[in-house]
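thread: overnight batch results

M.L. [08:02]
morning all. the overnight job finished for the chain we discussed friday. pasting input first so we're all looking at the same thing
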Amino acid sequence: NYSRMLVNPRRHFPYTVKRTSYKNKGACYTEFAVQIRCVRLDQTSQRLTLHYLSDGQVILNFAHNKATYFIPVVLIMKSLLAVTDKEVFEQLVEGHETDKNV
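M.L. [08:03]
and the structure it wrote out:
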């Protein structure tokens, strides 16, 4: 049921969202996103949203202590892995080297 997904989505299940209100978050934001509701063992949950931007970036959005944070996914990848920008790029486009849209 679609209304259930808006109220309380399944736990640990990513789903795509298309909402025109996402365009109001910033200049390059599109209406496309992926959301996932993560639930801890104590049954508290956190909703993570990956926003797709028209310039090709992906921004992670989450709330913590009543504050909303927007963090570029590339920044998170670089902080967790000891790789260069070139290595990140090569991994992201692997298998799509001839595609001009990548």
